[in-house]
Write a structure and sequence with these properties.
By secondary structure, this protein is of the alpha/beta class. It is 39% helix and 15% strand. The relative contact order is 0.11. Residues 1-19 have low confidence and may be disordered.
Length: 288
């Protein structure tokens, strides 16, 4: 009898252990299995870092990329390079249970070959942001009160509130949003473009050009936007492109150049999209 009880207890322990296992399929189409919820996480993308912290799980982060700088508590963590030049040795030395990377990261296969679990997530649209939050919620096993649905409700309601705050005249504006020098624009198909659409304005860069196309500066001259927003993600000093002095937005001084801190908010697809909508709305308030 004692033997049977012992065998039953062993089976129960195996069952309980397997019940804790979880699987997620990332944006490469790769299914990653974890024996338990990851406790030591390296995040190599600022938007993913911010999402982890927004779910009140910052304490699980043991390292981040050089651009992850929000919230302030991250400044004491090891910085491990960027998406193009990750510090593989530094990442491995931290013995993470999970490394979060972008869908375009070049480090995934190298880390996996070294026995590190990697989840690659890409966010280009509002739907992507909601989905990625849900994946992180599963990975982190966060309570519903801290999870993806709560964060998305905040983002969604904040964008709606920002739209309602705009005067009717502002909603007639035709807008060009530059995400970095090139110029690289935020098209209608991007998460930035979708926010602009929800604010009620017209993006001069149509969805057919892709989420973040590189444009010829002459394209913007021909589009002749009423308002220009510049989120200086490249951190290169803004210099007027040839012919831009003839654009209505420039002639009428309706160019919003977001500072470094605000620029990081508006170009990161994550929990601070609520604040991004308010910053864009504030810029549009000048168009009356």
């Amino acid at each position: 009898m004692r033997l049977k009880i012992k065998q039953w207890l062993m089976l129960l322990m195996v069952f309980c252990g397997s019940a804790q296992a979880l699987q997620v399929t990332d944006d490469r189409g790769v299914t990653v299995t974890f024996a338990q919820t990851p406790q030591r996480i390296v995040s190599m993308l600022p938007s993913l870092t911010e999402s982890v912290c927004a779910m009140e799980q910052c304490q699980r982060l043991v390292g981040v990329d050089r651009y992850s700088n929000f919230p302030e508590s991250l400044k004491n963590l090891p910085q491990l390079g960027g998406g193009m030049d990750p510090n593989i040795e530094g990442i491995v030395a931290l013995k993470p249970d999970l490394v979060l990377v972008s869908g375009k990261s070049r480090s995934s296969e190298r880390l996996e070959a070294l026995g590190i679990k990697v989840v690659a997530l890409e966010t280009k649209t509002h739907a992507d942001v909601k989905r990625v939050l849900q994946v992180l919620g599963v990975l982190l096993a966060v309570p519903e009160a801290q999870g993806a649905d709560r964060l998305w409700r905040i983002i969604d309601s904040s964008v709606s509130a920002a739209a309602q705050s705009l005067p009717a005249k502002a909603k007639t504006a035709r807008v060009y949003f530059e995400v970095s020098r090139g110029p690289y624009a935020a098209g209608e198909a991007s998460f930035i473009g979708e926010t602009l659409t929800r604010l009620g304005v017209k993006n001069v860069v149509p969805a057919k050009l892709g989420p973040f196309p590189r444009l010829n500066p002459e394209y913007v001259v021909r589009a002749n936007p009423d308002v220009i927003m510049i989120g200086n993600r490249s951190m290169v000093n803004a210099v007027a492109y040839p012919g831009w002095n003839s654009i209505k937005a420039v002639k009428n001084n309706r160019v919003c150049v977001f500072g470094v801190a605000d620029s990081e908010v508006v170009v990161r697809p994550g929990p601070r999209m609520a604040e991004a909508a308010r910053l864009m709305a504030k810029c549009l308030e000048t168009y009356e």
